[in-house]
Amino acid sequence: MSLKNVRLEVMQHLEKDVDALIQKYLIPVETIWQPTDFLPDSTKESFYEDVREIRELSKELPYDFWVVLVGDMITEEALPTYESWLMDVVGVDQVENNGWSKWVRQWTGEENRHGDVLNKYLYLSGRVNMKEIERTTQHLINDGFDIGTGRDPYKNFVYTSFQELATYISHNRVAKIAKQKGNKQLAKMCKIISGDEMRHHHAYSEFVERIFTVDPSQMMMAFYDMMKRKIAMPAHFLRESGESIGTAFEEFSNTAQRIGVYTSNDYVDILQKLLDRWEIDKITGLNDEAEKARDYLMKLPPRMYRLSERIKIPENSFQFKWVDPA
User: Quick check: helix, strand or coil at residue 9?
Assistant: First the structure.
């Protein structure tokens, strides 16, 4: 049987549990938070005063903070790319009444709120150039991205397990900085976004755990393949208007690392957390190739920590079109 057919068989086997997993990890529309919970109510007389407060508090936050918040928002706003990618995975296949496609749509519905609330907040802050941000967002959606998973559900679930934890870290650190600067509402907003990301991380991690129980060798090989090629960040094609694909991503990454929002050490920490979560050292029933893959994975974090220590980040901020340097 081909790998694709094995993947399909496993996904169909696990599909019977997807409704229960939706109930476990996703929150009903009627009870989950919405962007308006964190933004000024335009129907009230206090709206203008509330906007004025956002603008005043925004002056206390430094340039690099705004670059990172903009980059995080653009990443979230490129959601159509991520949904279309996941909907084409083997076992999902855009099927209307398929449990997996139901998961992807409802996961998308939750994720959609993140870019929405951050976009509106940035617009009201008065600290950013929304036209340039909108152009960058459209470029990122236009350019698409290749996360190196193909239509393989095993690789896709490794990727999403990793990335949901990475976005949790980023939003959570932004929340801490905002709180330190006295911006409690922005801190609360980013904190609750990070909570969503952590729930989603646990969900995708459980998907992987379930695959390990039925197809351990191939799941191990998928994990190995993803980590050997390195996890590509969702915004790795980031660019500003008039620039070529990917030119803004390195500077955005440098900024995030400079202020401690997301660092090369965090990348390795996430890998270690996945190794521990999935108890990679205890997986049984592996073939010889998968045993070698496991050995590689277990030795990878120390090697990557050593490499991360050599990375030098520029001290000076890059001037993005997104943010007013004043």
Answer: helix
Could you identify the residue written with the tokens 């996890």? 231
Q: Which residue has the tokens 């996945």?
A: 274
167 is catalytic: yes
**In this predicted model, what pLDDT tens digit does every residue of 210-224 receive, in sequence order?**
999 999 999 999 999
Residue 62: which H helix or E strand, with range?
A: none
Catalytic residue of the set 13, 33, 88, 209: 33
pLDDT tops 80 at residue 1: no
Q: Is 111 a catalytic residue?
A: yes
CATH, domain range 3-308: 1.10.620.20
Please say if 76 is a catalytic residue. Answer: yes
143 in active site: no
Q: Is 243 a catalytic residue?
A: no
Considering the candidates 76, 152, 215, 266, report the single residue annotated as catalytic: 76
pLDDT in tens, 71-101: 999 999 999 999 999 999 999 977 777 999 9
Task: Assess whether 276 carries a catalytic annotation.
Answer: no
Nearest alpha-carbon partner for 269 in 306, 301, 309? 301
Judge whether 56 counts as a catalytic residue. Answer: no
Token pair recorded at residue 275: 């190794």
- pTM of the entire structure? 0.95
83 catalytic residue (yes or no): no
Do residues 227 and 36 make contact, with C-beta atoms less than 8 angstroms apart? no
Is the Cβ–Cβ distance between 160 and 89 less than 8 Å?
Answer: no
**Long-range CB contacts (within 8 A, 24+) of 281-286:** 283/212, 283/216, 283/220, 284/216, 285/216, 285/217, 286/216, 286/217, 286/220
Nearest to 4 by CA among 160, 151, 207: 151
Q: Given 3-state DSSP classes, what are the helix, strand and coil percentages for the chain, each rounded to the nearest 5?
A: 70, 0, 30
Structure tokens at 126: 């008065």
The single-letter code of the amino acid at 177 is I
Tokens read off for 268: 């390795």
Of the residues 111, 152, 251, 266, which is catalytic? 111
